[in-house]
Amino acid sequence: MEHIVQTADAKTVNTWLENKEILLIDVRETSEYEQEHIPGALLMPLSAFDPELFPRIPGTKLVLHCAIGKRSEAVGKMLLNEGHTAVLNLEGGLHAWKAAGFDTEDPFTAPSPQPEATAPQTSGLVQ
User: Fold this and answer.
1) Alpha carbon distance 72, 93 (integer Å)
2) Is the pLDDT of residue 39 over 60?
3) Is the torsion defined by CA of 55, 80, 16, 45 positive or negative?
4) Domain count of the chain?
5) Which of 47-51, 77-81, 123-127 has the lowest mean pLDDT?
6) Are the C-beta atoms of residues 11 and 100 closer than 8 Å to each other?
7) What is the mean predicted confidence (pLDDT) over 98-110?
8) The domain that contains 67 carries what CATH number?
9) Which segments of the chain does DSSP mark as H helices, in order?
């Protein structure tokens, strides 16, 4: 039997993520994830994905995503074939997420430089 992976739009996924109702899985490759990813998404690249080893997390929806939704749909079908039930695909992937105006992050962006602390001013007394 061919399983159909249900989809959810970016706005719905964002709400679920904010409410901590889902586990968001990014199935893109490590190099793609390092360039940018959705905050809170866990990286599980398709190239190393083993649906037989994927843990079952009762009461938690899994939302998969990739760049446009094709790879994540394939992973969703693998999980459904292994008996997982609450598996959804982010419709349009990361592209749709960004088009909807939601943030991404780059884990290797250096933090903004902080202004240097100035030494306390002395009153001119030699100690």
Assistant:
1) 8
2) yes
3) positive
4) 1
5) 123-127
6) yes
7) 83
8) 3.40.250.10
9) 10-18, 30-35, 70-81, 93-99
Q: Is residue 118 part of a domain?
A: no
Given a cut of 80, whether residue 115 has pLDDT beyond it is: no
Tell me whether residue 60 is in a domain: yes
Q: Does residue 3 surpass a pLDDT of 90?
A: no
Which position has the token pair 């249900």?
6
Contact between 105 and 99 (Cβ < 8 Å): no
Tokens 């390092």 sit on residue: 34
CA angle 33, 49, 52 (to 5 degrees): 150
Asked if residue 29 is part of any domain, the answer here is yes
Q: What is the mean pLDDT of the chain?
A: 87
112 falls within a domain: no
CA angle 68, 38, 44 (to 5 degrees): 75
Over residues 13-19, the mean pLDDT reads 97
The range of the structural domain enclosing residue 45 comes to 6-99
3-state secondary structure of 23: strand
Return the SS3 of 43: strand
